[in-house]
Amino acid sequence: MKIAIVDESPARASIIEEGLVELDNREVFILTKREGLLAQIELIGPDIVLIDLGNPSRDVLEEYFAVSRALARPIAMFVDESDDAAIAASIDAGVSAYVVDGLSSNRIRPLLDLAVRRFNAFARLQSDLVEAKGKLAERELIDKAKRILMDSRRVTEPEAYGELRRKAMSSSKKIVDIAEAVVTAAELMGDN
């Protein structure tokens, strides 16, 4: 497992690294500079990113949230103090675990596990959402094609769907592909 620790303080970074000693097959990278951070992280390609900010200013916090938004991996962020706005911003930025005043080596491993599990759960939800939106878009396209056939051929909805289905089966295509062709043809002909 590749783990990137982001901390401008080598002393604090060592506390996090200490908490990872029990992990087998780990490769730890400590990043202490904010300049080019996203590029450095992408180059490493870590499985998880642990960010310790201590007591950051609002600008520094927002800078790290921008990095978090750009990464598609679990992120645990450690801060000494926080407020409701920072917590909300961290969630919006995709931070998997936002830990206030909890930097101790014995807490690192459980927090790492939590961050990975929360990231995976959120990724599954996002995947399900994308799939649902795709199915909805397909359904809307098929309904539009049925309306076009119903209007142009004066057929019922089941008959229009039957025509789409027959054409899909005879051409070894999906119904949605046939529906897309019907809608495109209607748009070209100016019928829609």
From TrEMBL:
One of its GO terms (molecular function) is RNA binding. The keyword Phosphoprotein applies. The modification 4-aspartylphosphate is found at residue 52. The keyword rRNA-binding does not apply. InterPro entries: ANTAR, CheY-like_superfamily, Sig_transdc_resp-reg_antiterm, Sig_transdc_resp-reg_receiver, WH-like_DNA-bd_sf. GO terms for biological process: phosphorelay signal transduction system. Keywords: Phosphoprotein. Signal peptide: none annotated. Residues 2-116 form the Response regulatory domain. Residues 122-183 form the ANTAR domain. This is ANTAR domain-containing protein. It comes from Alteraurantiacibacter aestuarii.
